[in-house]
Specification:
alpha/beta, 7-stranded mixed β-sheet, 4-stranded parallel β-sheet, 18 helices, globular
Length: 438
């Protein structure tokens, strides 16, 4: 396996002078940092664009160029900047999405962007079909995947009907996270009598006009039955599928800790076997929608089934975990965008040769903050805190961290500074999530 890794690295390094750079956005995202490190260690130049200067990825030693751009939440200004950046040096960068917004914007404007960037874009029908929960629900069911019981109300009469037939608690969730004003994942509703009022309040969170013009129905939230198992463990499959569908490499994982624990971002993951039935279902889903590229898909594991809840057609937060497990996803997307089938196959061969050591993923900065602050607040029992410290100690030799890296130390220092700055600016949000676990 090591020999294959060396071959992949040498092949990329030899061509560094003639190959385009990788253009990455969302410098505060762990997936962006993982991609920058992967590219840099394989001899590929990296440009990071971000509205600010303090995203951890911007400070990686593997980033050769840093530029400032408008936020993706201002899509018209962002798109204008991106096209202008591309015109200055056409075809000098490979562009691959790091966020839902960028995945959608690239697909909607792929024809124009492809004049200036190397893309591996599957088309707007595929991207929006996966990022829009209503479309994902319909497509997932059509290929035999199981999803939580879900409603897409169009009136208050529909809400009254849901109140009678749903098993409570339920979650009110946005139809998509693309250009969503608050990026809330969902709102639990405990009783049928609360649904209409809570739905009205939740629906006030809006979307950018560009998305509403594209799909007016997006403004209506959905209602989904709540599964408490989601707090204890989310099973995920992540990987890459090529345009033909013949190259399909995947890794399995269990999200074992998130913040906040009821609906939150993953802090700790464990390696898990790939369930072939789910992988086959995802392969069919990608084929049905015509999707190709990087993906991360989440399932709630219940006592009876695995329920599909999310499909991310882009780089994702724990991608460094999969890179460490032999799946060099940024390289696969890069070579695919350039049409370099030989290099893509070489990286795929290396991925197939990988044998694991029981790796785990742990954001140690976040874990230590959770353990210390929630113990002080009483939100975390003492025995549970000890359990997580034992877990970390047991897996220390095989733990993959999204930030801490002795070969690239600055991003973790910047992350700590960002956390301190954020807690001072938004103390209530910090208290709610990190201290009180809400």
């Amino acid at each position: 396996m090591q020999a294959e890794d060396v071959k992949v690295q040498q092949s990329a390094t030899e061509r560094v002078g003639e190959q385009p750079a990788a253009l990455l956005f969302s410098a505060g995202f762990y997936g962006t940092l993982a991609a920058a490190r992967c590219f840099g260690r394989n001899g590929i130049r990296v440009t990071v664009a971000d509205p600010g200067r303090l995203g951890p990825a911007s400070w990686s030693r593997f980033v050769g160029k840093r530029v400032q751009c408008p936020p993706e939440s201002q899509p018209e200004a962002f798109l204008a900047w991106l096209l202008d950046f591309g015109r200055q040096a056409p075809m000098s960068h490979v562009l691959y999405p790091t966020s839902d917004e960028l995945a959608w914007l690239v697909s909607v404007h792929a024809q124009e962007l492809s004049r200036y960037f190397h893309l591996y874009d599957p088309g707007i029908d595929a991207v929006y079909g996966l990022l829009n929960k209503r479309k994902l629900f319909e497509a997932g069911q059509s290929v035999g995947l199981t999803l939580p019981r879900t409603w897409f109300p169009e009136s208050e009469a529909d809400l009254e009907s849901i109140s009678r037939e749903a098993r409570f608690p339920v979650l009110i969730k946005p139809t998509t996270q693309i250009l969503y004003s608050t990026h809330r994942k969902g709102l639990p509703v405990a009783e049928p009598s609360q649904l209409v009022e809570e739905y009205r309040a939740f629906a006030r969170d809006g979307y950018a006009p560009m998305l509403v013009k594209f799909d007016p129905a997006v403004a209506r939230p959905m209602v989904q039955e709540f599964h408490p198992e989601a707090a204890q463990g989310i099973y995920s499959l992540s990987g890459f599928v090529d345009r033909t569908g013949s190259l399909f490499e995947v890794r399995g994982a269990m999200k074992v800790l998130q913040r906040p624990r009821r609906l939150g971002v993953g802090v700790c993951f464990e390696s898990a076997p790939v369930r072939q039935d789910l992988a086959d279902g995802l392969r069919k889903l990608c084929a049905k929608l015509g999707y190709h590229g990087v993906f991360e898909v989440e399932f709630i594991q219940t006592k009876d089934d695995f329920l599909l809840i999310d499909f991310n057609p882009r780089y994702y937060g724990q991608m460094g975990f999969d890179i460490a497990r032999g799946l060099a996803l940024p390289l696969m997307a890069y070579h695919a965008a350039l049409g370099d089938s030989d290099s893509l196959e070489r990286v795929g061969k290396s991925a197939r040769a990988w044998t694991g050591r029981g790796e785990v993923f742990c954001n140690r900065i976040a874990l230590e903050m959770l353990l210390n602050l929630q113990r002080l607040s009483g939100a975390l029992p003492a025995d549970e805190a000890k359990q997580w410290r034992r877990w970390l100690q047991t897996h220390r030799q095989v733990a993959v961290d999204p930030l801490i890296d002795s070969d690239d130390p600055m991003p973790s220092a910047v992350e700590v500074a960002q956390i301190l700055y954020g807690s001072a600016r938004h103390p209530r949000a910090f208290l709610r999530m990190m201290v009180l676990n809400r």
